[in-house]
Amino acid sequence: SSLSVPSGLGGRINTVLQSAFFKIADIIPADKAKELMKAAAKKSYMKKGQAIVDMNYAAIDRTVSISL
Q1: pLDDT of residue 68
Q2: Measured distance CA(34)–CA(45) in Å, rounded
Q3: Which residues of 12-35 are buried (b: 16+ CB within 10 A; e: fewer)?
Q4: Model confidence over 30-57: pLDDT tens digits?
Q5: 2: closest CA among 16, 20, 14?
Q6: CB count, 10 Å around CB of 57?
Q7: ∠ at Cα 13 (58, 16), nearest 5°?
Q8: How much of the chain exceeds pLDDT 70, in percent?
Q9: Residues 63, 67: Cα–Cα separation, whole Å
Q10: Which pLDDT value is given to residue 2?
Q11: Residues 6+ positions from 63 with CB-CB distance below 8 Å
Q12: Closest listed residue to residue 56, CA positions, set 1, 4, 2
C-alpha cells in the first residue's frame, strides 16, 4: 500500500486498512477511532519497541487525515 510504505511498515497494511475502514464507515467519531487504534497499536507492538509503535501511529495519522 502506498500509505504503509512511507510509514516504514512495508507490506504490512493492517493498520492502514483498519484506519481507512473507520474513516469510511464513520461508525464512531474519527477522533475516538484514532485514539482506540493507537491504544491497540501500542498494546500490540510495544514489545517490538517504540519505533514500531511510532510507525503505526504515523500510518494511522496519515490515513485518517486523507480527504475523501
Answers
A1: 63
A2: 16
A3: ebebbebbbebbeeeeeeeeebbe
A4: 888 889 989 999 999 999 999 999 999 9
A5: 16
A6: 19
A7: 45
A8: 78
A9: 9
A10: 45
A11: 3, 15, 16, 19, 20, 23
A12: 4
- pLDDT the model gives residue 7: 53
Compute the half-sphere exposure of residue 50: CA atoms within 13 Å on the CB side of its CA: 0
**Locate cell 474519527: which residue?**
30
Pick from 2, 3, 9: nearest CA to 56: 9
Q: Tell me, what's the pLDDT at 14?
A: 75
Contact 15, 37 (CB under 8 A): yes
C-alpha cell at 57: 501511529
Q: Is 33 helix (H, G, I), strand (E, B) or coil?
A: helix
The alpha helices in 12-64, defined as continuous H runs, are: 14-25, 30-45, 50-64
| Mean pLDDT for the stretch of residues 62-67 | 79
